[in-house]
């Protein structure tokens, strides 16, 4: 529970504070269901330390002058990639997994396989503080855009980490609580609208 020291509703006493459940950055889990290179995706997922998902952005923005104003169309809204950072275990399972995934893309002669051969859906699941799933992101059509990047060094005693960039087709967020809330809102909307209309 997080106490926010301001009045979110904008009404009443400005000293009023409300208590809200807020999502924590560390309560999450990556789920990669496929198995590559002899490594099990579910077990490799446990070594993931960081997921960086880029925002959807508007590509090819075009504008047309119309008097003193602008009329425009936004083009398409796309997201291109995500970055995953893993700690590297001594059994080499993380590197084996992603090298095995990359082998599903290109054959021994350098030709690409069809995308259906190597694209996979993965999931990032967020939990609340009680351990209940709050939000699930389905990351659709992912595949590695290159081999893992890693940086051995004598300058630090830290564990070895590797970063992998995955191409992404789309991201679909979902929430059990949100679905329930939407259902209740849709059920009560006619009643609320009727009362509002009656009161003028």
What does this structure look like?
It is a single chain. By secondary structure, the protein is of the alpha+beta class. Helices cover 20% and strands 38% of the residues. It is built from three helices and 16 strands. The strands form five sheets. Strands 3, 6, 11, 12, 13, 14, 15 and 16 form an eight-stranded antiparallel β-sheet that branches. A two-stranded antiparallel sheet has the order 1-2. Strands 4-5 form a two-stranded antiparallel ribbon. It is globular. It starts with a strand and ends with a helix.
* Percentage of residues in DSSP E strands: 35-45%
Radius of gyration: 23 Å
When the domains are counted, the total is: 1
Helix content: 10-25%
How many helical stretches? Answer: 3
Order of helices and strands: EEEEEHEEEEEEHEEEEEH
And the CATH topology?
A: Pnp Oxidase, Chain A
Largest sheet: 8 strands, antiparallel
Low-pLDDT ranges: none
- Strand elements, count: 16
Q: Which structural category fits the helices and strands?
A: alpha+beta
């Amino acid at each position: 529970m997080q106490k926010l020291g301001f009045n979110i509703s904008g009404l009443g006493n400005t000293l009023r504070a409300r208590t809200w459940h807020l999502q924590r950055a560390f309560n999450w889990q990556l789920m990669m269901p496929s198995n590559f290179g002899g490594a099990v995706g579910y077990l490799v997922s446990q070594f993931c330390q960081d997921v960086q998902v880029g925002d959807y952005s508007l590509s090819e923005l075009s504008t047309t002058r119309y008097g003193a104003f602008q009329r425009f169309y936004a083009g398409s809204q796309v997201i291109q990639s995500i970055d995953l950072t893993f700690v590297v275990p001594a059994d080499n399972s993380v590197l084996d997994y992603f090298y095995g995934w990359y082998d599903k893309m290109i054959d021994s002669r350098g030709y690409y396989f069809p995308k259906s051969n190597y694209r996979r859906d993965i999931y990032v699941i967020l939990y609340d503080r009680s351990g209940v799933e709050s939000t699930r992101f389905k990351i659709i059509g992912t595949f590695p855009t290159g081999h893992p990047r890693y940086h051995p060094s004598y300058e630090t005693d830290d564990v070895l980490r590797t970063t992998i960039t995955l191409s992404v087709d789309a991201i679909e967020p979902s929430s059990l609580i949100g679905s329930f809330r939407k259902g209740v809102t849709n059920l009560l909307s006619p009643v609320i609208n009727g009362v509002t209309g009656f009161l003028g």
